Amino acid sequence: MEDEIATSAAMNIIDVEDLTKVYETGFRKGNIVALDNVSLSIKQGEIFGLLGPNGAGKTTLFKVLLGVTQLTSGMAAISGLPPSNPRSRQNVGYLPENHRFPDHQTGLGLLEFTGRLHNMRQADIDSRTDELLEVVGMTRWAGIKIRKYSKGMAQRIGLAQALIAEPEILLLDEPTDGVDPVGKIEIRGVLEKVRDEGKSIVLNSHLLSEVESVADRVAILSKGRLLKVGSVDLLTSRRNQYEVEASIGNKHIELPPEMGKVVAYTKQGLIVELTEEKHINHVIDQLRRKDVAIRSVKPMKVSLEQSFLETITEDGEKSA
């Protein structure tokens, strides 16, 4: 029973339920609660973004999942196995933040060494190494010692070592840190390719625009607590706000207060805020009665960065 968490948990690639991690300080000010009753699940074949300010608990969650640090209470599982079971990590690739690869090794040497740690056959190591060096754009520098790498080059070779054994799950902590804009686009392409192969990626990043462009779902953490989790579309949608593109001219519509209000008239049409989604039909009906040509109706969206800042700010106001 200890090895197999639950049948329902096995349906997800990662499951976390009421996970709490407390670091004992030994000081009068008390202990540090790094994770506070966090519950979330990550599906197979998705890119999942973990967002939060410094100290939110993102890296601690990685460490718990990898068995680097033990949870205080709750449950965590990878492929249905607890972190205490070494088999839970057999199909996991990991790129830590501020990694310290042996700088006397070359990039090629690091990949070969990592492959041997995974008990790969030499022929497989050779073919996989050549493939990954090409994928991350490091073929030219494969024979250069890591101590001579720039931060971006070290990140690229770090991503390659995480991928060497073709893992089913990738845990990536700030994978594009120090990478130039072209490199970020290339790494995004690699992650999308891995996802399209049916594998799962958990991504910690402070670059919210990068997460927005690649993630399927995201979770927002603050002070160890899970504030929000959902699809990028859900988290960036303005609640019941719609932009109606229409040739409205100088015409106006009236909405009963119980249905909502017109936020603004624009050159493109108008923006409405509704109490319920279904009331958009009332807006459309009014425009049609006024013989207004409607080009499109779409939910209003904000950037993931703005949604993140609003969530963190709202949480801070509640805690004050």
* Topology as a string of helices (H) and strands (E): HEEEHEEHHHEHEHEEHEEEHEH
Distance between the termini: 43 Å
SS elements, strand count = 13
Query: Which structural class do you get from the secondary structure elements?
Result: alpha/beta
Shape descriptor: globular
Helix content: 25-40%
Q: Whole-number radius of gyration?
A: 24 Å
Assembly annotation: single chain
Count of folded domains: 2
The CATH C-level name of the largest domain is: Alpha Beta
The fold-level CATH name of the largest domain is: Rossmann fold
Low-confidence stretches: 1-10
What is the overall pLDDT average? 89
Name given to the CATH architecture of the largest domain? 3-Layer(aba) Sandwich
Output the number of helix runs. 10
Which percent band covers the strand fraction? 25-35%
CATH superfamily grouping of the largest domain: P-loop containing nucleotide triphosphate hydrolases
- Main beta sheet: 6 strands, mixed
Strand order within the widest sheet? 5-6-7-3-8-9
